[in-house]
Amino acid sequence: MIILASGSPRRHELLKKLCPNFKIQASDAIEVQNNLEPKILAIENAKLKAQDIFNKNPGAIVIGADTIVVLNGKIFGKPKNLADAEKMLAQLANNRHEVITGLAICAGGKIFTDCDVTEVYFGEMTAEEIKKYVATGEPLDKSGSYALQGGATKFIEKIHGDWSNVVGLPVYRLKKLAQAAGIEL
Predict the structure, then answer these.
(1) What pLDDT is attached to residue 185?
(2) CA distances from 140 to 2, 16, 31, 71, 161 (A)
(3) Spatial separation of the C-alpha atoms in residues 144 and 101, rounded to whole Å
(4) Of 84, 100, 183, 185, whose CB has the highest number of CB atoms within 10 Å?
């Protein structure tokens, strides 16, 4: 049995591209919020989520993921409120940032990890455009306060790397990690 340790509908849809049959069980693990290097932080939080669900389902293969946005070394998580979302987007405007997704697979008492990094370039955004986008509510549950596949598309000038990573689950990287672990998804 394969379990995705996430309630994210976006991760659910992306995992379907690799594995049509899996269960969803959102983790309630408390994420690490410290000064670890961003890649390590994303992997650690993915591990915490996967291990939490694996402990409840010891015979399963559990996939955990954690996505963060990083601008000039500063980590942008999910916004606390509308004002926080506006502030994040204003900082991302006219800038290049990285989206990092940590991955963890727990299977057979072992844990396998990796991460993916995608560069995202935002174009200009006026304060009014940001306010309108934030008012849709879409940014409120997204790292960095935006959804590549949603309304933020109009702000993204270009990306370098895997678009599915920016959405929250780097499909190719997950496939390669599963193969390295001897798991067929």
Answers:
(1) 84
(2) 29, 25, 18, 18, 24
(3) 13
(4) 100
54 within 8 A of 106, measured Cβ to Cβ:
yes
Residues β-bridged to residue 121: 96, 158
Give backbone dihedrals phi and psi of 140, rounded to 5 degrees, phi first. -70, -25
How far is residue 4's CA from residue 103's CA, in Å, rounded to a whole number? 11
Catalytic residues: 66
Instruction: Mean pLDDT check: name the lowest of 9-13, 34-38, 174-178.
Output: 34-38
- Straight-line distance from the first to the last Cα atom of the chain, in angstroms, rounded to the nearest whole number: 10
The rounded distance, in Å, linking the Cα atoms of 151 and 145 is 11
Q: 108, 5, 24, 115: which is closest to 64 by C-alpha?
A: 5
Give me the phi and psi of 53, to 5 degrees please: -75, -35
Is 100 exposed, middle or buried (CB count within 10 Å of its CB: 0-12, 13-18, 19+)?
buried
Query: Could you report the per-residue pLDDT of 84-122, keeping only the tens digit for each?
Result: 999 999 999 999 999 999 999 999 889 999 999 999 999
| Whole-number pLDDT of residue 36 | 82
In 87-127, which ranges are E strands? 96-107, 110-122
Q: What is the pLDDT of residue 81?
A: 96
Burial label for 93, CB within 10 Å (0-12, 13-18, 19+), is middle
Tell the residue number behind the tokens 């678009």, with chain if given: 163
